[in-house]
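Following up on my earlier message about heme C. Here are the inputs again, as you asked, copied directly from the submission form:
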Amino acid sequence: MRAVCALRIRLAARFIASYKMHVAWMRILFKHFIAVFFHIAFISTALVFAHNSSAATAESAEKTPSQFFLGNAENGKILAEVERCQGCHSEEINDNPVIPKLSGQHAEYIFKQLNDFKSGARKHEIMSVMAADLPESNLADIAAYFSSIPIMHGEPIDASALAKNLFINGDVKRNILPCASCHGNSGKGQAANGVAYPAIGGQHRKYLRAQMVNWALGERTNSAGGVMNTIAKSLSERELEALCFYISGL
Ligand code: HEC
Ligand code: HEC
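Thanks, got it. Here's what our run produced:
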């Protein structure tokens, strides 16, 4: 009887032990299941996110007005030599005050101007000919090259309060929007929302002046909505002179 009893107790103990093992295993498996579940959930969320963000990049790339960013700056450097652009626009020799500096100019802006010279939307004896000769496929490369050079800078000058105030605050009741709102506080321009605002800070004073006069007289009309014509027409001769002096020193 004692032996039977002892056997039952042992069996019961073994049963309890195996039950405990079972529960322990179930716990481990459950924990693993949860971990695997979260891993799968995390990886699939990450994949969906990555897919969405690459789709967003592709979409915003399509919205850009030009394909400039696909331009190859190295090839553009060679083309700028071959096509003789460097004869006039090279950084080293560009001290002619009516030939604009192109160093660091926004690729989108250069690309647009070359197209405008080609189509006649902007007119200039030399540049219309130079651009007409340029194969379409080379425009992006040339634009990419000039924009890859460190951006133009002027010599700091003692600017008048009149010029500084017009540049930063404009005179909105006279239709003079602040230059800084589009060309940036230091005049280094930007490409935003499909519009290319050129760098003007550090550009040759004479070139700036010539363009402002062209805008005022309506001889240049290629700014979006004619905004530059409206602004230039509203400036007095004294204001225009002071502004160009100030901007060339930025
Ligand atoms: C003989 C000199 C000369 C040569 C060569 C020349 N340019 Fe020009 N370029 C000018 C002048 C002058 C202007 C200013 C036009 C104006 O006053 O409207 C200009 C303007 C430009 C502008 C507009 C800049 C701005 O700030 O609006 C771009 C872009 C440009 N040139 C690119 C080129 C490229 C690219 C080449 C080579 C294919 C080239 N140029 C060859 C003289 C030259
Ligand atoms: C609402 C935006 C806006 C404001 C404000 C503005 N600009 Fe512009 N400006 C432009 C755009 C856009 C262009 C380029 C147009 C084109 O595509 O040819 C431009 C071009 C120019 C150019 C020609 C640059 C070159 O390299 O040929 C000059 C100079 C200039 N602006 C000066 C000024 C001055 C000075 C002021 C302030 C009194 C001013 N801008 C205010 C948008 C603006």
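One observation from looking it over: The chain is about 65% helix and 0% strand. Hope that helps, and feel free to reply on this thread.
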